[in-house]
Amino acid sequence: GELRAAYSEANPRSAERHERARRSLPGGNTRTTLFYEPFPLVFDRAEDGYLHSLDGDRYLDLLGDYTAGLYGHSNPVLTKALHAAIDEGMSFGAQTDREERFAAALRGRFPGMELLRFTNSGTEANLMAVASARAHTGRSTILVFRGGYHGGVLSFGNDNAPLNVPHRFLLCDYNDVEGTRAAIAGKAPDLAAILVEPMLGSGGTIPGDPGFLRMLREEATRAGALLIFDEVMTSRLAPGGLQRALDVRPDLCTVGKYLGGGLSFGAFGGRAEVMNGFDPAGTGARWAHAGTFNNNALTMAAGLAGLEHVLTDSALHELNARGDRLRGRLSAVFAEAGVPFTVTGRGSLLTFHPVSGPVSTPADLANANPVAKELLFFYLLDRGYWMARRAMVSLSLAISDQDCDELVATVEEFVAVHGAALRDAVL
Ligand code: PLP
After folding, report:
1. Same-domain check for residues 113 and 23
2. Mutation choice for ligand 1 from 230, 257, 293, 394, CB with most ligand atoms inside 8 A
3. What global pTM score does this model have?
4. Which domain holds residue 150?
5. Which of 145, 206, 232 to mutate to test the pocket of ligand 1 (most atoms within 8 A of CB)?
């Protein structure tokens, strides 16, 4: 209560803007994940690794727009490519040279993408991948996992079921090898696809066990179903995504987020045998897939410039190594103080969970202490750190080792101030 009162007092312009926004947007919001009580901060400017609030404060952007902001806010290469694209004309209603180059760059990157198509979001990419699997197999059941998030209409984390697309879903527990194997065996003749994030993203940055993912590969093949990797978040964890890092090849995969250089983006692709169904002049199914902005000039320009000139393999490796070091140090801070927080993730992605751990599936979060999470969020906010309200961090190229050192020191302070209460579970 005290925290929230202090927050409201410190951010009057965000509060006032929230009241106005509620007149046009339900809850003042058009992107659910950005909402938190009592009202979210409003930002009006950003550069490099920083965000500036309407209330005049500067925050280190540890959220990196839920992984879409990998390049930081004002990368000069992307900015230049975008200005040039604007000058060339923005909406052609025709094919462009750049879309071919961008598609080739993606194809070269992800082994599971022999052919691909662009969309405007990760959600759309997943909807298309699932539809392709159903059309290709002539079957209807889609196996998904509790805690999985593939977009607002393919969401299995909370009570979103009424909004999900009306597919026949079979729901299993993430990282549960035996349970999932049994469920697949029971549904094999109607199983069109297994849709899985190789690391749960929104569900808490919980890595998939390599053995679990390999089992999905084997069982999909045995059942005659397609394995779809949703790599919208995880594609940033290695140059070829987790599919290449773990050497598990999906039949179809989806990407999104940062690959569009910070603009609206998604893509789905996979084995040529499946994707050829979209060849408008082919001998196959000739499924239609349109989309006015699929090849929009700005996304194509920014995405291509990012891959060609900024995101070298070594830059990506360094970013993920920085995240691994940060996660290790944060975990040690909590462990040494005996404070019940577990930091999960891989590479440049991490989440603080207010539980003792280990955390290998969303069910392990059942006893999470929501007050502890709120306390950490507002503590960091008060000291100039912006992260997801669900306590997720996604590092961008604009975050330095020094930024990470300072974050660790701030979390040490948090533990010194609140550790006893957290340990004794009096919050
Ligand atoms: N899939 C995963 C794993 C995601 O994390 C997200 C977004 O958070 C999506 C799909 C949806 O992507 P978009 O928000 O671009 O529709």
Report:
1. no
2. 257
3. 0.98
4. 76-310
5. 232
